[in-house]
Amino acid sequence: MTNNEQVIAQTKSWITDVVIGCNFCPFAAKEVKQNTILYRVEESILVKGCIEAFVQECMKLDGDESIETTLLIFPNGFADFNDYLILVALAEKSLKKGGYEGVYQVASFHPLYCFAGAENDDAANYTNRSIYPMLHLLREASIETALGRYANHEEIPQRNIDFARQKGTTYMKMLRDSCM
Length: 180
What we know:
Strand content: 5-15%
Distance between the termini: 14 Å
Helix content: 40-55%
Mean pLDDT: 96
Oligomer: single chain
Largest sheet: 4 strands, mixed
Number of strands: 4
Number of domains: 1
Strand order of the largest sheet: 1-2-4-3
Low-confidence stretches: none
Shape: globular
Order of helices and strands: HHEHEHEEHHH
Structural class: alpha+beta
């Protein structure tokens, strides 16, 4: 198994065991089952190259309707959460610049994810703490469709926070780390 294959296998484990297992995203299981998630490992640590890779993924989604969502994984870069937040801001800016605003949306996941105003050891952070820094590129039309079928979708974030806090930081960290 190559390093990239290992990174993807670990990311798939995190999706299955944490994201789906904890029901953080009630829409993820369908996409995993239908094999419509594209996993791409970006080895570059340079912001410019990573943003170029992000834009390439937007173009790939443009040309392939069979891909519902893309996880762009950065195993070598952005270990610092603040550096990662700069990458997220640049990715969002590139969506606007490329005419993708309203077409695609970025969700952010990082091993040290910390919600604004939250304590670093708040278990709720594990709703977005992944095993690698990554950008999740989603089709906005698909999000709208999925939300339309899900009653009380606005309650999902709070339900996730409550679940993670009930389980506790030790459990959530162990669950996430077991994917590596």
